[in-house]
TrEMBL record:
Keywords: Membrane, Transmembrane, Transmembrane helix. It comes from the Eukaryota. The lineage of its organism: Eukaryota, Metazoa, Chordata, Craniata, Vertebrata. This is Uncharacterized protein. The chain crosses the membrane at residues 12-31.
């Protein structure tokens, strides 16, 4: 009887987590903007392009070398 109650508890947890996932999915589906081409969309796409330009490998190496250089200088003092 003990293992049956444990199994039922696990089943209820799985059902609850799945229900919350689908509830969040449905809320997100209906909460998305109805008009994707707005002025804010142009602004956010500009920031996205700037962000993606910064994510180039040579840019990342430059930032990491700056950070590591500062850390090394900090530990030497």
């Amino acid at each position: 009887m003990r293992t049956e109650s444990r199994l039922i508890r696990w089943i209820w947890w799985i059902v609850a987590v799945t229900a919350l996932f689908f509830l969040g999915f449905i809320i997100g589906w209906f909460a998305k903007p109805t008009h994707p081409h707005t002025a804010d969309d142009n602004v956010s796409s500009k920031y996205l392009k700037e962000f993606l330009d910064e994510m180039q490998p040579n840019q990342i190496r430059g930032h990491l070398s700056l950070i590591l250089g500062k850390m090394c200088l900090k530990h030497q003092h």
